[in-house]
């Protein structure tokens, strides 16, 4: 029987940054926790990434075991996380000041190592409060959970730091190779390093790289730009005894339920937001509906009247930013981006966690 790769999340991403994440939650996390995801893919299209993976039930078991039985190991994860995160911020900031090719290559290696290592604590910090939502905890455990939520709320920009790093690096490359009509943001870190070392890309290679914008997958640390449809991906995965989770057809409804991340009510027109390229659609009268938000979308989130997401828990970015901006927010609807469309008029009742078409 084929193993089903569950759909985990969808959000904005830079293709280059996905490789560090891939290594981080597979090889590095396995070294740290004894378990890493070996069966998963990223589907990338027009600046948005959807992650599918198998084994989330195993991660839950390991994380709850650490929380309940290995507090010293948890402390080690939490103690090293801030310094590693600071290094990631410094490398991201430094990318704006790269002066030569050798420096750029060294910074890619340094960034990738740091970015890969940070994913073990990030996975723990992000998923633990979600896994514990239905569990009974004592006062001491509640104190630890609150501490973890606070740590996450202060440091939830790892994807954005990677995007900034590679955006600046790609700008350096575009200025250096301005005669090439190639989108460097669609390259892997290895391909970026090859460019910096003087490797020349032929027209076929350039065409193949540029085509990734229309759809591609990352599987086993390789990019496959010829796989754009679910049927094509599943045919490819059948060789590995894997298949993508089948998405259920969503019935048309006038009422959507989710979790209240920040109370309040708002009326407005829906804007579907899947990538940073769509932020221009947002104004002060709109309601953002997104699979999952990241800090890269903050300029749009500051403008809108309310936020609705398909995914997320109490420590997700949408919940954190909504509380900071004091805007109504409903998370975890699962179906909002499938039921609603641009221009729909809705009432967001975040006091009750309900969205109604009007």
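Q: What amino acid sequence fits the structure above?
A:
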């Amino acid at each position: 029987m084929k193993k089903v790769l569950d759909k985990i999340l969808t959000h904005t991403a830079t293709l280059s940054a996905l490789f560090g994440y891939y290594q981080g939650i597979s090889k590095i996390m396995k070294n740290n926790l004894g378990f890493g995801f070996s069966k998963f893919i990223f589907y990338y299209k027009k600046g948005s990434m959807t992650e599918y993976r198998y084994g989330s039930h195993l991660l839950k078991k390991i994380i709850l075991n650490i929380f309940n039985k290995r507090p010293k190991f948890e402390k080690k994860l939490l103690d090293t996380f801030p310094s590693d995160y600071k290094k990631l911020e410094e490398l991201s900031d430094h990318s704006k000041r790269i002066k030569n090719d050798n420096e750029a290559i060294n910074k890619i290696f340094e960034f990738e190592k740091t970015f890969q290592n940070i994913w073990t604590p990030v996975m723990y910090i992000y998923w633990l409060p979600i896994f514990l939502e239905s569990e009974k905890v004592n006062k001491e455990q509640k104190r630890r959970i609150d501490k973890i939520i606070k740590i996450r709320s202060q440091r939830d920009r790892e994807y954005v730091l990677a995007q900034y790093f590679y955006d600046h690096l790609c700008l350096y490359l575009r200025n250096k190779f301005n005669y090439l009509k190639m989108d460097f943001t669609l390259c892997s870190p290895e391909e970026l390093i090859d460019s910096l070392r003087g490797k020349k890309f032929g027209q076929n290679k350039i065409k193949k790289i540029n085509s990734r914008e229309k759809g591609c997958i990352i599987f086993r640390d390789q990019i496959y730009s010829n796989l754009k449809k679910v049927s094509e991906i599943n045919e490819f995965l059948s060789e590995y005894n894997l298949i993508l989770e089948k998405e259920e057809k969503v019935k048309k409804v006038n009422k959507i339920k989710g979790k209240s991340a920040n109370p309040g009510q708002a009326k407005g027109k829906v804007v579907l937001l899947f990538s940073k390229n769509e932020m221009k659609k947002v104004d002060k009268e709109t309601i953002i509906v997104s699979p999952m938000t990241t800090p890269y979308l903050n300029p749009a989130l500051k403008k809108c009247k309310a936020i609705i997401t398909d995914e997320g828990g109490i420590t997700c970015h949408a919940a954190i930013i909504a509380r900071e901006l004091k805007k109504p927010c409903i998370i975890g609807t699962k179906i909002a981006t499938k039921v609603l469309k641009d221009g729909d008029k809705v009432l967001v009742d975040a006091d009750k966690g309900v969205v109604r078409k009007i």
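Q: And what stands out in the fold?
A: Residues 181 and 206 are 8 Å apart (CA to CA).
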